[in-house]
Target: CBS domain protein
Amino acid sequence: MSVKERIPVSSIMSTQLVVLNTTDSLEKAEKLFKKHRIRHIPVVSSKKIVGMLSLTDLLRISFVDGSYEDEEAIESIVYDMFTVPQVMVKNLRSVGPDATIKEVAEIFSKEEFHALPVCRDGELIGIVTTTDVIKYLLDQY
Model:
């Protein structure tokens, strides 16, 4: 194994975490997605990761087709019908900070995930996305 193959995911993960709690509203989630221009938000319950909410999950339930005068009113009605735990992905895969970038890339290539929580002793310490991995690989050229 070359030195490059042993580079830990902790060297490319984001530690500036935007998180949701299970009690937060989907409206809050939407505001966070827009404000931070992100596509995945880890859902935590007292620092332990319990799920991941993606922008795609949110769009799937809002299904507003633009033919309504007041899109925002309809979105807020839809958002009030669901909770974060109902919409988030629960059967999460996570990695430790020492997992290699190569291992993370293999997970992304085989599974449907586009973001993985990075945890130490069950506690969320970072998030790594397919974009992080692609940027890292591009930097190698």
Remarks:
- DSSP finds six helices and five strands in the chain.
